[in-house]
Amino acid sequence: MSVILERYEVEKLLGKGNFGKVFLAKDSKNGIKVAIKQMSKARLAKESHLIEYLNGEIECMRMIKSPYVMELYDVAEGKPRCDLDKENKYMICGYCNAGNLFDYQAKMPNRVIPLEKTMEIVAQILKGLQAIHSEGYLHRDLKPENVLVENDGNGDVRIQ
Predict the structure, then answer these.
(1) What is the pLDDT of residues 66-82, one digit of tens each?
(2) Containing domain of residue 67, as a range?
(3) Nearest by Cα to 159 from 120, 119, 125, 113
(4) Cα(first)–Cα(last) distance of the chain, in Å?
(5) N- or C-end of the chain: fewer Cβ atoms within 10 A?
(6) Structure pTM?
(7) Which residues of the chain have pLDDT under 70?
(8) Active site residue 156
(9) What CATH number did the domain enclosing 150 receive?
(10) Which residues pair with 148 in a beta bridge?
(11) What is the DSSP letter of 100?
């Protein structure tokens, strides 16, 4: 098992995205599950616009404090205290255990989210966007795959 920043124990690979991979990990200090985005420094270096995009995302996530926007806990860049390889950059974020909105919808009967729940989800997404916009940022990739769902019985969502 790999450990990041001397506290995040990597449990499994959750998926792959445009920048790299996302892992599920457990914070050894408090037992909370987190998502760790691993991005290749080599790929980022080849495409300078990706570095600017990523730095903007990090800045935005640090500024936004809302229950409807994914939290950023930490950023690591293959530091000596990071025992994963030194070729990557890592973002440690909140984790929503029910996956994304696309998957959530797929689990519904006939792939239809009930109207009342849909209205709740849309209201939460709008509150997240309001929090982002109030800090002067714009979400440029809003889609079901970037809306994550909590599975604590109420299905609250967070924008990532």
Answers:
(1) 999 999 998 887 654 45
(2) 3-159
(3) 125
(4) 26
(5) N
(6) 0.83
(7) 1, 18, 78-86, 152-154
(8) no
(9) 1.10.510.10
(10) 100, 158
(11) B
What single string gives the DSSP state of each residue in 3-26? EETTTEEEEEEEEE-SSEEEEEEE
H helix or E strand, kind and range, residue 135: none
Q: Provide the token pair at 31.
A: 């037992």
57/70 Cα distance (integer angstroms): 11
pLDDT of amino acid 84? 52
Domain total of the chain: 1
Q: Which residue has the tokens 């309001």?
A: 130
pLDDT of residue 7: 86
Copy the structure tokens of residue 111.
């792939």
Say how many CA atoms lie within 13 Å of 44 toward its Cβ: 16
> By C-alpha distance, which of 22, 1, 3 is closest to 82?
3
C-alpha to C-alpha distance for 83 and 86, rounded to whole angstroms: 8
Tokens of 150: 């909590």
For the record, the structure tokens of 87 come out as 């070729």
